[in-house]
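@channel anyone free to eyeball this complex?
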Amino acid sequence: MRARNYFIGAAFALLAGGMAHSAVAQEIKIGEINSYSLLPAFTEPYRKGWQLAVEEINAAGGINGKKLVVVSKDDGGKPADAQTAANELVSSEGVAMLTGTFLSNIGLAVSDFANQKKVFFLAAEPLTDAVTWSKGNKYTFRLRPSNYMQAAMLVEAASKLPAKRWATIAPNYEYGQSAVAVFKKLMSEKRPDIQWVDEQWPPQGKIDAGPVVQAVAAANPEAILNVTFGPDLVKLVREGNTRGVFKGREVVSFLTGEPEYLDPLKDETPEGWIVTGYPWYSIKTPEHDAFLKAYQAKYNDYPRLGSIVGYQTIKSAAAIIAKAGSTDTDKMIAAAEGISMPSPFGEITFRKIDHQSTLGAYVGKTAQKDGKGVMVDAVYKKGSDYLPSDAEVEKLRPKD
Amino acid sequence: MSVAPPLLAVEGLTKSYGGIHAVRGVSFSLRAGEILALIGPNGAGKSTCFDMLNGQNKPDTGHVRLLGEETTGKKPRDIWRMGVGRTFQITATFATMTVRENVQVALISHGKQLFNLFGSAPNFNRGEAGRLLELVGMSGYADRPCGELAYGDLKRLELAVALANQPKLLLMDEPTAGMAPRERVDLMRLTAGIAREKSIGVLFTEHDMDVVFEHADRIIVLNRGTLIAEGSPAEVRSNPQVQAVYLGEGLLYDAEHREGAST
Amino acid sequence: MAFYVVQFLTGLASAASLFLVASGLSIIFGVTRIVNFAHGAFYMIGAYIAFTLTERFSGAFGFWGGVVVAALAVALIGVLVEMVLLRRIYHAPELFQLLGTFGLTLMVEDLVVLIWGPDDLVGRRAPGFKGAVDFFGQNIPSYDLFLIVLSPVVLGILWLLFQRTRWGVLVRAATQDRDMVAALGVNQKWLFTSVFAVGVFLAALGGALQIPRDAVHHAMDLRIIVEVFVVVVIGGLGSIVGAFVAAVLVSELNAFGILIFPKISIILVFLVMAAVLIVRPWGLFGKPEAAARKTPGLTVNPWRPLTSNERLAALAALVVAATLPLFAGNYALTVGSEIAIFVIFAVSLHFLMSVGGLASFGHAAYFGLGAYGVAFLAKMAGLPMIVCLLLGPLLGCMGAAVFGFFAVQLSGVYFAMLTLAFAQIVWSIAFQWVSVTGGDNGILGVWPEKWAASPSHFYWLALGVAALVTIALRVMVFSPFGYALRATRDSLLRTEAVGINAKRIQWTAFVIAGTTAGIGGALFAYLKGSVFPDNLGISLSVDALVMVLLGGVETVSGGVIGAIVYKALNIWLVSQTDLSKLVLGGFIVLIVVVFPKGIVGMLEMLAQRRRKASPPGSPLIAKPIESAE
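replying in thread with the prediction:
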């Protein structure tokens, strides 16, 4: 048992190592957490995005004259590990605020941590409505358009379709379930005449696509709502194409227009799906041009949606700190509520009422071009147009 | 003399597997302090018979009674609680525990302390464990891990374990199998001594005829599942039927100790 | 009608890859008794290499050639792994090979991203099988038809291989009795290597054949490995026909199940496995495992309680640990609390595994139930923290009582797999029953009350509980109950013959271990302030196994050291690098090779050597076991 001494000592040494550095006066540190090891396909472009932002901010003289430093941690895709990372960033790195996260449950875990420890948290990517509504709190803000907003954008287009018989395919977890629920609710409000004829709930990441598309086809819907993404989407599309399930049917699909999900499909990209996404190749605005040029110059690669989110997350954080003129949490919250700033998608605002940003998304149709998947007829939908009324939001959000 | 029931009474024990009668209508009895050998050629049904006595196997028909109490169909552990100790053809001991601990486990079980979560087992009934080991001549090995023991020592340890619940009856399946000739005689001498001293009935199966004829008070002979002879060693030796069975098998008996029959 | 036929055929096609991978795993287990956790990794590498080859070389030859060459290449990697790693640990305690192959899996997950990049890769379709065949108005992909034909063909080839070749006879003989084959003078080394190569080939082929249907990505291994284990167990370990039938059974149940319960896929295989194992404890086509001989590595030095000096040393270590808040910051304290909690978790599994010989693959279920217990009590009933901490673990206790009752009827790998099935069932309830558990978004806001809120107070609380639990379990090891439990591990036959109801003893141990894990989970809920289905997921169960094996399964307190080393290293690595899996996996593989008895086992060995004074030649590093002869 003498060994125990030694190992505990060693464990301490490991821990102590993490505490050596403390904030240098002329720096502003921002903590950033994401699922780098679990979801590299999404988080790599995201990381490039925020690194570009850091570079630009510091090249322009930093934040109120102080150099911006982002300390980034991996959460391995586990909420518990994200909390450990958050703790390290706050307690031993002394960061001014937390940013990042991709998965909804991790976003919520860090948000709850922020609420408990009274730390400012800017959630980058998690989509769940709970982050800003049912489990919203004073300390948490969110950049990316929520599940509800994306559903509302898609419903606007879907409700104009003649189709009356609808089927849904969604991954069987909170995101899939709430995407379907919101879509159904909003859709039924606009089109009381439609019928929901089938729903499929494959497990996330483990779709057995053949039986699923076959089952959907058996219900003979006129239109299909898809919420699967990533490898599941690839399998679904391949099986559906081969079996001709999408032929003569309208498909409305969450996120599929994002390069992260669309690019792998290559020459199997289905035609004419109505999707949300990011057609970086066809956006012609000065703000986006500037971003695109800088991104391509730095990385010799094209941006994904994650790049935009990463970039804008850090830009937003910097803008908030600059406006607050301090890294005091309450001052940052006051500064963030209602702050407006430019983004590659145009001006966005973090709403005071629910801390959701008004960053929007593009809605368009999928198509193939030179053996690659692209989005055509894409139109930018401003986030502010797809949020419920203030009165409704008030009801959704717990009182601080 | 009184009409107290015999220690072990076996009546019409029958067991068949898929139409083949392994044991057919076997009946016998055993008195306290008596040493009874169950012999017979390979496949005679000794092991099946044995397993029915200790509860590992259930007879199709027939009864086994211990001091008048029915044990048929009871589980081995319940039969043990009624005062039956046993040893195995291939020793079964707790290999990662010490010799003393092996005995202590049996003592713990006997003392109904199995679910005592916070007592000290190393000190549990250490004295009694020591006495039992002393009895079988294993005191010197008490702290040795059981996995290191020679086979003969394991057999003696099994005997000590089997004696831990102060049994009225010992069931020993080929107690000397796999041992050197000298050891066999020693072990059986030891067993017989203990049995007579403590008035324990012993039923054992055995291939080694020297052991059988030297130590058994009485012998029963099985052939093809049926009891063909019963009596004192001298009677059995001179029984023509027994001679026929054994001569038919030749005298290669000793070479065949490791018969495949399962315990 | 046509629809049902097509659905049936689709199910058969899904069964194909499952069967290929499962048959490989089954063969490997049958002969070498290795629970090859890396099987999914080989499947994944097969897909990656096939992707590269089929992209490079076009045409039918390029495609099919690429698929076969990929499988062969991976089989070669398999041979290398077997010779370099597994050969050294065949004689290590049962399941230690699991740890080694788990380490490999971790490494591979990061390596493929380094080599092939993070993006999902979509390979080409199979030449000649791109379209679909019309069947009364329903389309069946022609590639599905190819797969449907392929799996019985592979089954046939394997059957011939096993029935008609000398190699096959040896493999079958070894599956039934390894020692016998060794005694017959067969060169076991090469038999094992060749079996491993064939098994890996099948896995890689299964992966390579997925290219036209699936996306190639770095989490493919985890997607399939658990399911494959389940298929192998349902079919019966070592039975290839069993693997085939089970793969078809599972796939067809899924294909038709989703028509009635669209949400069934997530839990289906585990329900089937639990049902099969309860009714047929050795799977559909399996045979009862030859008992005996499974003594965990024959400990040479028996366990003994600590001497008074050692007790003082342990106490001193505890006192030192308790002074941490005097010089460490909040983060270090929180990490310290987390480690203390994992010590509780690890010692609970250690108790079951090393004292009871029951290796649970689903121990996180009881940890997680404890955590959910606390969350329910705190959030719904609004009870005070101390009450929640006392009552929360009862949920783990109840879960262990129910599941343990069934699980202890089995032993060995079947026990492990049934516990895994139960854990997955609990997990999917937590995951799906959104209205009660919040689904994967969990239950938030389970923060400690003021008296325990500061990191130092919470640390002392966690440390104190961890110390108490460790001491209590250690006392139990040397209690009459502990002796009885060890006895059941060593010889069921003998325990029964000395009047011990082994199942009841094991069940009690299971409940004790489950409750203890629940205590860890309860503290964990308060440490994190939230509870998620992760807390009862497979990866946490695997973490626990790794901690126990790392510490040393043959020791009394290996779990403590294993938990401290693994958790500290894990947290540190995750914080330092995105390649934490690669480094951690490498570390585990190294430990497996260098310390085949685990860290504490190794230390004990050294200590024993020193006690015996002159070590003859003293090879400090355990001599690699050269062969399995």
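from a first look: Chain A has two domains: 11-146+284-360, 148-281+362-386.
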